[in-house]
């Protein structure tokens, strides 16, 4: 897995250069225009004898500082002079066909058939660049990431970085993360970084006063918080400035902007304890942050919030990230774990890459974790086995806070190289994703739903789109049906029939005309597909005479009757001649990827 992260990071670095050089994202086109005008007017510049300064770039085209008489290096004096004598001057005296010592004699260039890496008769023929990309499956990776790049472009993402990453014993962890953040910025993300400093503070204050797992920030503690918040802020600015410069390859945009983008107020006295300078967000300047993003800059927030009276308060950084995500309408909030941990199923031993809100609530309740809207978390230490477990659960708790504030998805990542890129731009991801309940309102049908289902599908039966299903048949098979309800009204339905061969048929997928084009059909399809995977059926098929395009757009492929399970082949109605469409679901992340495209 670590090698996979490394390969992903390398490939996306190559992709970044392609994006930059091809001009896919060019916030300052005037600079490129100036360069192109310069080349088109004066030709291509080569050699050590020409120096063009910024004066031309300032649109003073009448003056070009060109040191045409610059002394060449000693080893090339005679050779350059001989070649310069044969060159042709054009326009204002700038020479466009000036030969270079780096020129290749055209007589030495041959055009031959390309050889790929192979081993024949003990000899190895290789093309190193081609081999590297073939080994890393660059083309497949690029194609697979295209939808994610397009989907995430111009979306807002809040990243929470704990202080542990900044002072980690392995300095490459923080440096690699900043490089990845810069790369996502280059690919079009609007980024807000919230940086914590709890680790730095705890290194200086081993015995901080706490009550209900909340830190009491007194005057002395606040002084240390100010120092450490300033330290982590400038460390992020320093490293990110370097990473942005390497990504953009030019000056003018991609700065790191920090300031008083939110005001804070004190907790006050809770349960008889005065928390003094511990506080929470009072007002958030979302419009000012959006204005910064219009300039293609990155916003950096620390845990220090200033009140209108000029007092400074210490704000929980995880809470601040969740609050910022909700206030800004962020597409994602990304939390980075201090330790390398993940969620695993106790029975199957498999990694759990995705949690729904309902599952997350149950997990937090089991372990006695409760987050409060004022920016603190209550922890029942008796239900916690380790600091690593506590760290993960607290992140899940604040993830819930972000989702309840309107954020669509929250990602929790470990300190792995390339984890951010892997999570954002690949199907399999790298960490744990928590998302809202897109299937809220979907449940298994009951006998009382027979009449509403029949009323919903009757118009399509009359049109011949659906096979007739009398109420008696619906009642007999009601355990196979699921309904999507809104205020006790059945607005969509779908039937799931499982087969022993590890496949399942989706049938009778109908949405009320008043609720179409609102994602109800996609939600019902996704819900039924997840049920299939849960029941061990990874092949899903449908039979249709009218809605073929809808299923093709959602990853189904047309197949023949022979692809159906034998028992279903026996009942296939040849006179109706329905077309058959099948889809293979490899993992839950497949379905997560599909949801990303229809629920942006």
TrEMBL record:
Keyword Transferase recorded: yes
GO biological processes: L-arginine biosynthetic process
Keyword Transferase: yes
Keywords (A to Z) from UniProt: Acyltransferase, Signal, Transferase
Reactions mediated catalytically: L-glutamate + acetyl-CoA = N-acetyl-L-glutamate + CoA + H(+)
Coiled coil ranges: none
Enzyme class: transferase
A Pfam family this chain is assigned to: Acetyltransf_1
Entries under InterPro entries matching the protein: AceGlu_kinase-like_sf, Acyl_CoA_acyltransferase, Asp/Glu/Uridylate_kinase, GNAT_dom, NH2A_AcTrfase
Highest taxon listed in the record's lineage: Eukaryota
GO molecular function annotations of the record: L-glutamate N-acetyltransferase activity
Sequence ranges assigned to domain N-acetyltransferase in this UniProt record: 440-578
Signal peptide start and end residues: 1-21
E.C. number(s) listed in UniProt: 2.3.1.1
Metabolic or biological pathway, per its Swiss-Prot or TrEMBL entry: Amino-acid biosynthesis; L-arginine biosynthesis; N(2)-acetyl-L-ornithine from L-glutamate: step 1/4
Annotated Gene Ontology cellular component terms: cytoplasm
Entry's family note: Belongs to the acetyltransferase family. ArgA subfamily.
Protein name (record): amino-acid N-acetyltransferase
Organism: Cylindrotheca closterium
């Amino acid at each position: 897995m670590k090698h996979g992260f490394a390969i992903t990071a390398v490939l996306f670095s190559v992709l970044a250069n392609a994006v930059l050089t091809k001009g896919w994202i060019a916030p300052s086109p005037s600079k490129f225009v100036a360069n192109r005008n310069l080349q088109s007017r004066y030709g291509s510049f080569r050699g050590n004898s020409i120096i063009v300064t910024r004066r031309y770039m300032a649109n003073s085209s009448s003056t070009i500082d060109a040191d045409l008489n610059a002394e060449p290096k000693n080893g090339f004096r005679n050779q350059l002079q001989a070649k310069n004598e044969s060159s042709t001057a054009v326009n204002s005296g700038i020479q466009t066909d000036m030969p270079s010592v780096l020129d290749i004699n055209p007589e030495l260039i041959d055009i031959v058939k390309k050889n790929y890496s192979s081993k024949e008769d003990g000899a190895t023929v290789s093309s190193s660049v081609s081999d590297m990309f073939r080994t890393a499956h660059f083309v497949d990776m690029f194609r697979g990431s295209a939808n994610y790049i397009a989907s995430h472009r111009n979306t807002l993402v809040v990243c929470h970085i704990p202080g542990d990453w900044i002072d980690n014993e392995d300095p490459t962890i923080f440096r690699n993360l900043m490089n990845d953040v810069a790369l996502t910025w280059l690919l079009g993300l609007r980024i807000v970084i919230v940086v914590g400093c709890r680790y730095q503070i705890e290194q200086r204050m081993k015995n901080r006063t706490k009550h209900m797992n909340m830190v009491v920030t007194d005057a002395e503690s606040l002084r240390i918080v100010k120092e450490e918040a300033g330290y982590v802020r400038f460390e992020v600015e320093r490293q990110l400035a370097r990473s942005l410069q390497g990504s953009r390859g030019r000056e003018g945009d991609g700065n790191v902007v920090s300031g008083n983008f939110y005001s804070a107020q004190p907790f006050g006295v809770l349960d008889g304890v005065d928390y003094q300078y511990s506080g929470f967000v009072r007002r958030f300047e979302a419009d000012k942050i959006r204005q910064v993003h219009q300039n293609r800059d990155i916003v950096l927030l620390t845990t220090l919030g200033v009140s209108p009276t000029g007092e400074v308060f210490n704000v929980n950084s995880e809470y601040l990230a969740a609050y910022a995500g909700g206030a800004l309408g962020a597409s994602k909030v990304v939390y980075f774990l201090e330790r390398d941990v993940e969620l695993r199923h106790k029975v199957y031993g498999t990694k759990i890459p995705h949690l729904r809100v309902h599952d997350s609530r149950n997990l937090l309740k089991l372990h006695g974790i409760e987050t409060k809207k004022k920016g603190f978390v209550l922890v029942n230490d008796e239900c916690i086995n380790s600091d690593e477990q506590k760290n993960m659960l607290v992140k899940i708790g604040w993830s819930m806070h972000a989702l309840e504030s309107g954020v669509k998805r929250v990602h929790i990542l470990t300190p792995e190289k390339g984890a951010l890129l892997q999570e954002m731009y690949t199907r399999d991801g790298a960490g744990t994703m928590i998302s809202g309940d897109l299937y809220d309102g979907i449940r298994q049908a009951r006998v009382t739903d027979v009449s509403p289902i029949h009323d919903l599908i009757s118009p399509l039966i009359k049109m011949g789109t659906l096979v007739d299903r009398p109420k008696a048949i619906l009642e007999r098979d009601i355990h196979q049906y699921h309904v999507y309800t809104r205020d006790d009204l059945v607005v969509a339905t779908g039937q799931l029939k499982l087969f022993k061969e590890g496949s399942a048929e989706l049938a009778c997928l109908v949405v009320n005309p008043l609720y179409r084009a609102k994602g109800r059909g996609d939600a019902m399809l996704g819900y039924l597909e997840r049920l299939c995977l849960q029941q061990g059926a990874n092949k899903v098929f449908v039979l249709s005479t009218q809605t073929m395009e809808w299923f093709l757009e959602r990853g189904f492929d047309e197949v023949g009757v022979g692809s159906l399970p034998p028992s279903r082949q026996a009942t296939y109605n040849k006179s109706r001649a329905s077309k058959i469409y099948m889809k293979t679901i490899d993992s839950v992340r497949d379905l997560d990827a599909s949801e990303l495209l229809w629920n942006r």
